[in-house]
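Closing statement on the magnesium ion sub-project.
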Amino acid sequence: MKILGSDQLAIAEAAALLEQGKLVAFPTETVYGLGADAENPAAVAAIYAAKGRPANHPVIVHVAEHADLQRWVQHIPTEAEKLTQAFWPGPLTLILKRSSHIPDAVSGGQDTIGLRCPSHPLALNLLKQFKKGQGGIAAPSANRFGHVSPTSAQHVMTEFAELQADVIAGLIDGGASEVGIESTIIDCSRISTTGIVLLRPGYITAEQIAAVIGLEVKAPDQAAPRVSGALAAHYAPRTPLLLIKQDELQQVMKRLEANQQSFVLMTCGGGESSFQPSALMTHQLPSDAKAYAHGLYAGLRLLDEKKAQIMLVELPPQDEAWRGVNDRLRRAAFDSLDVLKEIKSNK
Ligand code: TXA
Ligand code: MG
């Protein structure tokens, strides 16, 4: 994996690599993406292979600012038009009915496509140079399937360290991703029957979306399309993660100590839980939802490195501003429900 700089020449090189069908990892304001030419099925297949991701999961196609969306979709509903005007470039992905020439590899065999114009200046620059702004870069988050998304170039390198050096041709280093959790995903492909549906909460909230389109934003129903980030176990560190309410933290830690189980701890804001001598490491995240999201994945990775038996995460506030964060934490904790039951029953 060649580390590319962030100057004009480096971006031109990255665009050329993508045009040749190679994979390039690049920064966005949410998380780093692992990109390929969306119109090259072999290149898109290489993303799935690198990630170890099942082939029936669709990927998001990233487009340049003011791109001609008609190339990708059958029709752009008024609501979707309003959303692109209000939030693009930015951390919002729209699911729309795809046009027929889009490779199946991109849509995971579904009749829709996820489109997003990211706001990170390097991503925008790359999209502007790639196929002279007329192409689309298919890019899921640049991590192994099910694992925590990367928010720095270093994270991307760590994720794919075991891969052969040339599987990912280039990596653009753009520093830490500002938002820190993946884009909000809104399904606009079934408006006439189902309305506008929130598939994945994120930085842009359902309230903000509703305010722009003047319609209620619905929760996913049975017919909602597959979203791999909506699988129960996802965004997970290797260490079993336990999400614990603040007032139960002391009790759980005492039990872990008594059982001689090693643990690391992530806290939300300061307060009495922020220093725990018995934890292998304590990492404190800010009590502001946006600042917390920004640091979340780096924090999970840092704690994961300690290879403790358990990772305790203090449950953050449950209000609307924290919805994206809580969604990711709950999925990261899914595999660990049994572990928690065991600790609690083991008096
Ligand atoms: O912030 C983000 O969205 C990042 C950056 C790199 O842009 N990308 C990202 O991609 O999170 P990924 O593949 O890890 O997650 C994209 C989600 C998946 O859960 C996928 O199933 C869903 O978007 N998705 C993509 N196309 C879809 C479609 N046509 N219908 C339903 N869901 C779709
Ligand atoms: Mg992902």
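The CA atoms of residues 207 and 217 lie 8 Å apart. With this model delivered, the sub-project is considered complete and its resources will be redirected to Aim 3.
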